[in-house]
Amino acid sequence: MKKRIRSPQDAAAGLLLVVLAGIALWGGAQLSTGSLGQMGPGMLPLGLAVLTGLGGIGLIVASFFVPGLALERWHLRGPLFVLGAAVVFGLTVRPLGLIVAAPAVVVISALASSESRWIETVVFAVVMTVLCVGLFKYLLGLPIPLAPWWIGY
Amino acid sequence: MTELLSHLLLGFSTALTLQNLMLCFIGCMVGTLIGVLPGVGPIATIAMLMPLTFKLEPTGALIMLAGIYYGAQYGGSTTAILVNIPGEATAVVTTLDGHQMARQGRAGVALGIAAIGSFIAGSIATLIIAALGVPLTKLALLFGPAEYFSLMVLGLAFAVVLARGSVFKAIGMIIVGLLLATVGTDLETGEERLTFGIQGLADGIDFAVLAMGLFGFAEVLRNLEAPEARDVVKRAIGRLLPSLEDFKRSLWPILRGTGIGGLLGILPGNGAVLGPFASYAVEKKLARDPHRFGTGAIEGVAGPESANNAGAQTSFIPLLTLGIPPNAVMALMVGAMTIHGVIPGPQVISKAPTLFWGMIASMWIGNLMLLIINLPLIGLWVRLLKVPYRLMFPAILVFCCIGIYSINNSPDDVMLTALFGFFGYALYKVGFEPAPLLLGFVLGRLLEEKMRQALVLSHGSFMTFVERPVSALLLAITLIVVVVAMLPAVSQKRDRVFAEQP
């Protein structure tokens, strides 16, 4: 069965669209569509979701007939640590402040690259934190918490 | 004519205050600083630096943002010439001959002619905007919801044509973009749509969040996978000022590039992207000796760079006159304007003339500043480019996180950006282009609003879009554009144009 897919990249692309459409249809199921003259809130989202799904199915079907590119390898390390760093920033910036969140981003994201060196990363994290605090907090006065647990803001 | 002069005078008197000059200068400076980083294009740069402008009054903020934009553009060209890495699609062409010149020890001349060409193009484009601004706003008054709808559909059609790869996939991306735009509270009924009960989504997905995820984070992920192929020029930068001979060769390419880029930039649907490609193709065709192209021909830098800058500038026209953002950068500008209480559209010219003309004048001043500040600073940029990527990407990420957090002071936004970063990575892996998605998202809400208005007026009949002559004309052009793009001969040519992109 698998051998008959001639364009794995397009098949995966189609699958992605079908999944997106599924999520949208599920999330918007209770919205009313209304009529064309008086459209309800659901008309466009659901209509677009159906179109997305049909497009996805079209891509999957076509991938059986039209030869195309192979699926590229997916890596886990990069997305895990780079995006993980951003998530950690989001989780820590309010309760712990910038002086924790900023170095956390540097250190965690450094794990994404095999070229990172430990001491360099730690030093760089400190430098970046000082720079960001000076620039964003003091120079620009953005309302971003510094260290609520320590200095109260 | 006198009207035009008095408008420009008003603009310059606004832009030339000490404070606004400083803001323009700082904008150009930091814009270049961030834009020079490989893999950080103007979209990510503006999203990252937007919080810098929050505390300013609207005119100053927009002047600074415009400065950041031009700085980011010019920074991208610098990276293209010195490192052979285009910061964004429009700089791709510059790498072809620009980097070759750099390898021959003529990096300085390449950067110099890019700056001079951009300045000339910018000056002419500024005049075009000033001249077309008022007549086009009058045109906008003739537009009803149906016409707006059709114009945006035309814009989306252009985006399909200009995207790389399969037309079908590009259309798919536009639909997904439109779908993402429907997330949030429905404008008419106040009902929440597709928010999955998440509080942060009630106002819809923030454009900066989506753009930063798709272009900032996903770009870092792509760069981490691509083996380090940075080829920072080791040769001397050389003299910066082009010789008289260089200048003679470049003058016509600069003027032609300005015309081509400026014209394409006005089109809705990111026509500006095509400018540099078109200009390069034209220069190659007109050259007495086309073989020099690709081996360091100065015309191959001068033309496309001018086209790039002219297009960047004239793409303000649809935004400022019709309120339709023609590309992602302009959509970020809409976001910034809205934060400052300015709703882009035909009313800006009459209601806030100092803001409108001040911004236009500052475009010209910004170009001049780029010329003055960048040439002496090239040594600094070269040194910055030598920083290894393993240090650069954590720094980029920290700035991204702080930038996104600061836009709405929302930690959720940062996490949502991470989610879109993964989405962008997945799109890249299965061969989807994020640019059409972004444009679909940009136009989505306005498109829905105008479509619903038009259909209410016509009692639910779709015929309204073809019965009104202007709307019908726009839809007819849309149809022609899409059909032509799908013709085998054209699509082959299109593949060849984009094949020059890595």
Description of the molecule:
- The complex is a heterodimer of chains A (153) and B (502).
- With 153 residues, chain A is mainly α.
- Chain A folds into 2 domains: 8-62; 77-139, no CATH class.
- Helix content of chain A is 60%, strand content 0%.
- Chain A has helices at residues 8-27, 43-63, 77-92, 98-110, 118-139.
- The longest helix of chain A is centred in the last third of the chain and has 22 residues, at 118-139.
- Chain B is mainly alpha-helical and 502 residues long.
- Helices cover 74% and strands 1% of the residues of chain B.
- Chain B is built from 22 helices and 2 strands.
- Chain B has helices at residues 2-15, 18-35, 42-49, 58-83, 92-103, 107-141, 145-162, 167-181, 207-225, 244-266, 274-286, 299-314, 316-322, 328-339, 347-351, 353-385, 389-408, 411-429, 434-457, 464-467, 469-486, 488-499, and strands at residues 184-185, 192-193.
- The longest helix of chain B is centred in the first third of the chain and has 35 residues, at 107-141.
- The termini of chain B are far apart.
- Classes of the chains: A mainly alpha (153), B mainly alpha (502).
- The interface between A and B is large, with 71 and 71 residues.
Q: Low-confidence stretches of chain B at least 5 residues in length (pLDDT < 50)?
A: none
- Provide the helix percentage of chain A: 55-70%
Encode the helix/strand succession of chain A as letters: HHHHH
How do the strands of the widest beta sheet of chain B line up side by side? Answer: 1-2
Which geometry of chain A do the CA atoms define? flat
Computed over alpha carbons, the radius of gyration of chain B is 22 Å
- Total number of β-strand segments of chain B? 2
- The mean pLDDT of chain A is 90
**Strand percentage of chain B:** under 5%
Percentage beta strand of chain A: under 5%
Number of domains of chain A: 2
Q: What are the SSEs and their pairings?
A:
The complex is a heterodimer of chains A (153) and B (502).
Chain A: H1 8-27, H2 43-63, H3 77-92, H4 98-110, H5 118-139
Helix pairs in contact in A: 1-2, 3-4, 4-5
Chain B: H1 2-15, H2 18-35, H3 42-49, H4 58-83, H5 92-103, H6 107-141, H7 145-162, H8 167-181, E1 184-185, E2 192-193, H9 207-225, H10 244-266, H11 274-286, H12 299-314, H13 316-322, H14 328-339, H15 347-351, H16 353-385, H17 389-408, H18 411-429, H19 434-457, H20 464-467, H21 469-486, H22 488-499
Helix pairs in contact in B: 1-16, 2-3, 2-4, 2-16, 3-4, 3-9, 3-17, 4-5, 4-6, 4-14, 4-16, 5-6, 5-12, 6-10, 6-12, 6-13, 6-16, 7-8, 7-19, 7-21, 8-19, 9-17, 9-18, 9-19, 10-11, 10-12, 11-12, 17-18
